[in-house]
């Protein structure tokens, strides 16, 4: 009989009753953000009557199969097996996946399961009391829901259950713990809304975007409380970096933080969810198909979180044909690689850098400048900008033939204007040793410029993320390293994570572009692929300044 009731219990748990009820009010829960799920927000979207009915139906999904099992004389262990089957059906409805792809958690189902078990009144109150206590103490509904299966496990120990019963109760708790893991992660990171707090969703007062990041080094793993407990194991040698990297490749993207307090000059608030798939730069570069898969999953998560735009940061910006494949796979959200505003900040910063450089009595026409990464769009844009102003220009890149063609085109254009400097091309970074001014913007995951490549007194503008310049270069006498593409946010902005751009209100230009797109809804200006239109670059420079964003130089 148990073998017959287990699949039936699973099917009962899999019934999408809440979805069907919501459709009666014209609400499609398939498009709902995780932040709009839960009792409080169901009340807002569905009204008291339908929300209460949905909760009661979920309760009955858990209660009735166990009531039937009790009527048939099932043992406690068999009833707990039924409970597991019902909850599995609710969480993973394999036969009804199309109408119910949400990450349903089922607090009502859990309550029904607890009520359906033959517990003495005193023990039966333990799960409910623990759930209410956790909810009252913290204000987090997710902790209150987790208190139900945890309280059931506690009741099992207090009631002297056998090992099998405790194991099954523990399995129910672990299932719930796994399903609530994102809520728990957000609680640890301080980004989970409490009861009564405004939801981090678009509104008249707030626009919402998301930004996909990744750890630059292994140390960045420990910024998130989710992984911080692993740090001692790595330092003690019990967990090797290679193992960490293999483990990280199994993780789907997750929300790890926020950029808060951004208020534009016209009074709008911009909230940015920070989403990470914990792949290091070399993993993104060496495993392009995995990187594309994770970027697509990150864009889908951003959409679920209510973002209208998702930006691809650092090495994500070059994944999937610089975002094209990500946009094709997730058409429901706008995707940008941030290239236009990045190019705009560079364009705006270079005249100031050249002016400061010349203030020391140096003649730009007698100056040798170098551009590292000149095969790239941003770096070659720098080369075009500075070429008419310097005496000699050295272009360094990986593809010598492309460099030669680009240099020839640049030379011909400048000759027509009577401004042609001497142009040299090389694939060796050592060629920049004679340069007084160095501009670098590569996509290399490791530093490419070391002390032996730089002469004393050189100025270096580093646009690379991660930085192209090794920290030891700062020890070369007279060398000045200037970080590029950094923007100061308006308002009392701060990121909950260290994004490695100095102050908490300073972010990369690609993140700032994501915010400007969300605020202005100028989605036709987004940056996708390698082509950057001059009018889009100018748009972001002008609109960002009008909104209060400031380029750091």
What topology does this entry show?
Blueprint: H1 2-14, H2 17-24, H3 39-46, H4 48-71, H5 76-91, H6 107-116, H7 121-138, H8 141-158, H9 163-179, H10 181-189, E1 206-213, H11 225-228, H12 231-235, H13 241-248, E2 254-263, E3 269-276, H14 281-286, H15 288-304, E4 309-312, H16 319-322, H17 324-329, E5 334-336, H18 339-358, E6 368-372, H19 377-386, E7 392-396, H20 400-416, E8 422-426, E9 437-440, E10 459-462, E11 480-483, E12 486-488, E13 491-495, E14 506-508, H21 509-520, H22 534-547, E15 550-551
Parallel strand pairs: 1-3, 1-4, 4-5, 6-7, 6-9, 7-8, 9-10, 10-11
Antiparallel strand pairs: 2-3, 2-13, 12-14, 12-15
Helix pairs in contact: 1-4, 1-5, 2-4, 3-4, 4-5, 4-6, 5-9, 6-8, 7-8, 8-9, 18-19, 18-21, 18-22, 21-22
Mean pLDDT level: 85
Percent strand: 5-15%
Going across the biggest sheet, name each strand in turn. 5-4-1-3-2-13
Count, helices: 22
Shape: elongated
- Poorly predicted runs are 97-102
Q: In terms of quaternary structure, what is this?
A: single chain
Estimated radius of gyration: 28 Å
User: N-to-C terminal Cα separation, in Å?
Assistant: 74 Å
Return the structural class.
alpha/beta
Described by strand count, sense and barrel closure, the largest sheet is: 6 strands, mixed
The portion of residues assigned to helices is: 40-55%
Number of strands: 15
């Amino acid at each position: 009989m148990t073998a017959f009731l287990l699949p039936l219990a699973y099917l009962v748990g899999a019934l999408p009753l809440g979805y069907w009820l919501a459709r009666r009010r014209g609400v499609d829960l398939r498009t709902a953000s995780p932040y709009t799920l839960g009792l409080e927000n169901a009340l807002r979207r569905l009204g008291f009557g339908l929300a209460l009915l949905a909760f009661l139906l979920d309760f009955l999904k858990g209660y009735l199969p166990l009531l039937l099992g009790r009527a048939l004389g099932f043992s406690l262990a068999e009833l707990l097996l039924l409970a597991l089957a019902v909850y599995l059906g609710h969480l993973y409805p394999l036969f009804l996946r199309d109408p119910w792809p949400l990450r349903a958690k089922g607090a009502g189902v859990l309550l029904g399961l607890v009520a359906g078990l033959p517990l003495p009144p005193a023990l039966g109150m333990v799960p409910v009391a623990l759930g209410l206590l956790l909810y009252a103490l913290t204000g987090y509904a997710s902790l209150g829901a987790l208190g139900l299966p945890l309280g059931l496990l506690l009741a099992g120990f207090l009631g002297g259950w056998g090992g099998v019963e405790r194991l099954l109760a523990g399995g129910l708790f672990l299932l719930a713990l796994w399903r609530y893991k994102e809520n728990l992660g957000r609680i640890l990171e301080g980004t989970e809304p409490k009861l009564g707090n405004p939801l981090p969703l678009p509104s008249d007062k707030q626009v919402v975007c998301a930004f996909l990041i990744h750890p630059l080094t292994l140390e960045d793993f420990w910024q998130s409380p989710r992984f911080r407990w692993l740090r001692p194991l790595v330092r003690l040698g019990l967990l090797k970096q290679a193992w960490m990297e293999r483990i990280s490749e199994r993780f789907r993207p997750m929300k790890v933080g926020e950029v808060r307090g951004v208020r534009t000059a016209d009074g709008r608030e911009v909230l940015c969810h920070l989403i990470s798939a914990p792949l290091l730069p070399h993993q993104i570069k060496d495993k392009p198909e995995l990187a594309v898969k994770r970027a697509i999953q990150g864009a889908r998560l951003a959409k679920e979180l209510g973002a209208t735009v998702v930006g691809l940061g650092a090495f994500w910006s070059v994944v999937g044909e610089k975002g094209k494949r990500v946009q094709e796979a997730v058409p429901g959200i706008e995707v940008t690689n941030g290239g236009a505003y990045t190019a705009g900040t560079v364009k705006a910063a270079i005249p100031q850098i050249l002016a400061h450089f010349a203030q020391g009595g140096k003649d730009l026409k007698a100056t040798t400048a170098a551009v590292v990464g000149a095969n790239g769009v941003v770096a070659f844009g720098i080369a075009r900008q500075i070429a008419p102003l310097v005496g000699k220009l050295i272009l360094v890149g990986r593809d010598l033939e492309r460099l030669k063609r680009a240099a020839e085109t640049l030379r011909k254009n400048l000759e027509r204007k009577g401004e042609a400097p001497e142009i040299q091309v090389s694939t060796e970074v050592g060629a920049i040793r004679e340069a007084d001014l160095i501009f670098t913007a590569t996509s290399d995951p490791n530093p490419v410029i070391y002390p032996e490549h730089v002469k004393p007194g050189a100025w270096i503008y580093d646009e690379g993320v991660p930085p192209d310049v090794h920290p030891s270069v700062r020890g070369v006498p007279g060398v000045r390293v200037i970080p590029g593409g950094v923007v100061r946010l308006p308002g009392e902005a701060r990121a909950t994570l260290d994004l490695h751009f100095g102050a908490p209100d300073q972010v990369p230009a690609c993140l700032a572009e994501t915010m400007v797109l969300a605020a202005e809804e100028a989605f036709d200006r987004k940056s996708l692929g390698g082509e950057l239109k001059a009018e889009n670059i100018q748009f972001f420079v002008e609109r960002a300044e009008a909104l209060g964003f400031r380029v750091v130089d």
